[in-house]
Amino acid sequence: MVEDLQFIHESEFWYISSFLNTSEINGHQKSKEIENLVKTTFENLTEDDIYRKELKNEIFEMVKNVTINCKWIPYLDNFPYKDENSDREFNTLGYFQFDVEYYKENFSKKESLRPILIQQIPYILHNKLKEYSKKPENRGFYLDTESPIYVFVTSNKTKPKEIEWTQNNINQYKKVIAYWNEIYSGAWEDYSEILYDSRVKNNLSNRLSELHFIRRNSGFIYMAEENYKNFFESYMKEFVLDPTPKMRAVLFALRSISESLDLLFLKAQSEGFIDINTIEKKIRNLRFLRGLIQTKLSLIYAELDYNRRQHYTRVLKHLLNEFEIDSIISRLNEKFNIIYDSMQSIYVKKNEEVQKRTEKGLNLLNLLFGAGILADLGQVIMLVFTLQEGAPTTIFLNGIIAFIITSILIITIAFYIYMRLQVKETGIGKTVDAVIEVGKNEVVLIKRKYPPFQDFYALPGGFIEKGEKAKEAVIREVKEETNLDVRIIKKIGLYNEEGRDPRGKIHSTAFKCQIIGDASIMKSGDDSKEVELISKENLKRIDLAFDHEKILKDANVLD
Fold first, then answer.
1. What residues have CB less than 8 Å from 539, skipping those under 6 apart?
2. Given a cut of 60, is residue 390 above it in pLDDT?
3. Co-location of 318 and 378 in the same domain
4. Does 147 lie in the same domain as 47?
5. What is the pLDDT of residue 371?
6. Which residues fall within 8 angstroms of residue 68, CB to CB, at 6 or more apart?
7. Is residue 367 part of a domain?
8. pLDDT in tens, 2-30
9. Contact, 249 vs 93, CB < 8 A?
């Protein structure tokens, strides 16, 4: 295979999708903060940060000679997404864009840049952004750190010659092209011809002087130098580059909605599920978000129907196909149908539970009211109290009868009120949480294994089982989640604020506890992914699940 061709790196554009809560965070200020974070990361780069150690010298040289600018691009305003795992709320969908160039003033060094090198820097940054996005002060935005940073590479020169990009020449140089148009794919020497053939398909350019490739996680544009100078800013950025991160943001939003539906389905089927109305409200909001996305996509479909610019429509069709948008929406619609079917069965189950619990009491009340007994009792009472004369014995007996009848009436009304409260109580879940200090400076925390707040730190605790007292439950839950035996020192309080738990109306009783024995036997189990001793100093930098920060403050563990 001929490989005597080299593309000369010109510049790069990186994209990372994100939700933003504009009431908490200014996107443009945050972009500058991220830009400074990137620059600081590059200035303090160490060998431990580099994945491919054999490339370390070249990577150190690259980060010393990089020009980078970050900006926030909103795409969908008024997009009220709530993350079901962390319970964070957002109102805007968009992406952060990085304009990147290496060796801006040194063309000879640009010639040394290879695809394998270009991949390394975004990989380092991706890990740093993962850590950065988890900080408590960054709750107001949600980066798509599950996907790689999208890298669009541009080139406007080749070495040793300019080439007319006929299909024959694309096939002739397919190995070189393949390394550039899928940045994250690696460059192994023993890749098969089939792989190279697949990578050079779908050249979106309609000119023999250019190559335009858009893949799922990276893209590559080559334009002859004169074309690049005349048309890159005026055409290529608007009609090829810009639609790509927008479509990727749509993909991020659809995937997030899908994950939220999965969590809602699991919640609805779990013992921890309490409030049907809360689940219904969340599903309606997700349907609304789906509608907003489909409305936005309808504009793209209109472009495909009416725009006569063949290159642009070809790019749009390719993006829809590359990111599998139609297929994802179809699967999303199926999930909505499944969860609605599931909700119907839950309605039946909940109604049966309420009916069984209140059937006897309500039947008694219906009997009393329906037969007119309470009305008759009331009349008897009035009659007794209107007696002005009579024998002392008769008056005494009438008084006893009046007392008995009045008592029955009061008890019946009290029973009615009690049954109504019991019905209301069926919509509330009861949990316990434990604050366990070890020494003077450490607290026992678990890392949650399951949603909500998956992978967040939390106090040990869980749901009170049927027939169990709160104090019994907290001792049991601590044992199950940490393997520790504890004694209760005191009750901290009852936490029942609306919205404290994304699963619905969950009221938690918190206790301060003390370890019996040695903390060295501590190990995770049940709902805990990990169990750790966290210093009080580090607690200030950890984003805790639910309202556990407030509980720790009430327990005088946090200031």
1. 443, 552, 557, 558
2. no
3. no
4. yes
5. 47
6. 35, 38, 39, 98, 99, 100, 101
7. no
8. 557 899 999 999 999 999 999 999 999 99
9. yes
Confidence of residue 360 (pLDDT cuts 50, 70, 90): low
Contact 504, 544 (CB under 8 A): no
Residue where a domain stops, chosen among 166, 200, 234:
234
- 248 lies in which domain range? 242-353
Active site residues: 530
Do residue 335 and residue 388 come from a single domain?
A: no
Question: What dihedral do alpha carbons 482, 472, 346, 286 form, nearest 10°?
Answer: -50
**Residue 452 belongs to a domain with what CATH number?**
3.90.79.10
- Amino acid (one-letter) located at 148: P
Pairing of strands 442-448, 210-214: unpaired
d(CA 233, CA 70): 18
Q: How many domains does the chain have?
A: 4
- Per-position b or e across 295-312, b if 16+ CB within 10 A of its CB: ebbeebeeeeeeeeeebb
Instruction: With respect to residue 364, please indicate whether it lies within any of the assigned structural domains.
Output: no
Boundary-marking domain end, from 400, 425, 450: 425
Read off the pLDDT of residues 173-220 as tens digits, 9 standing for 90 and up: 999 999 999 888 777 778 888 999 999 999 999 999 999 999 999 999
H or E element: which one contains 287?
Answer: helix 276-306
Which of 82-96, 158-172, 397-411, 489-503 is predicted least confidently? Answer: 397-411
pLDDT of 274 over the 70 cut? no
Reading the block at residue 226, the tokens are 């004169």
Bridge-based pairing of strands 442-448 and 528-535 is antiparallel
Looking at residues 528-544, what average pLDDT do you find? 89
Distance (Å, rounded) from C-alpha 133 to C-alpha 200? 36
23 shares its domain with 151: yes
In terms of Cα–Cα distance, which of 289, 247, 326, 291 is closest to 75? 247
61 and 108 in a single domain? The answer is yes
Could you tell me if 453 and 408 lie in one domain? no
- Same domain for 447 and 412, yes or no, is no
Non-local (6+) Cβ contacts of 266 within 8 A are 451
Q: What's CA 506's distance to the chain center, in Å?
A: 21
Residues 269 and 330 in one domain: yes
The whole-number pLDDT of residue 494 equals: 95
59 in any annotated domain: yes
* pLDDT at residue number 388: 47
Do the domain assignments include residue 359? no
Q: Please give the structure tokens belonging to residue 145.
A: 């750190």
**pTM listed for this prediction:** 0.78
Does position 419 have pLDDT exceeding 80, yes or no? no
Query: Across-strand partners of 426?
Result: none
- For residue 115, cis peptide bond before it (omega within 30 degrees of 0): no
